[in-house]
Amino acid sequence: MAYQNSPTIVSETPGTKHYCTCGESANKPYCDGSHSRLNTGKSPKMYEVTDSRRVAICDCGHTGKSPFCDGTHSTL
Ligand code: FES
Hints:
This protein is mainly beta. The protein contains 1 helix and 4 strands. The protein has one domain (8-67).
């Protein structure tokens, strides 16, 4: 899998988002359907963004508060 050891920082706008949890998307932090094509057994995390703000999306796959980074990557 293509997980990274740091979050992806994005400036979000309101709307429904589908964040990659498999690590294989070419459009991180968003799902691009790779989880299905590669049979990862994972599925995207749907999240409703209600206001524009910068967020850190987990890309190590170990966060305890998906889809957001909780710092776990720094302990791995
Ligand atoms: S591409 Fe990773 S969850 Fe869809």
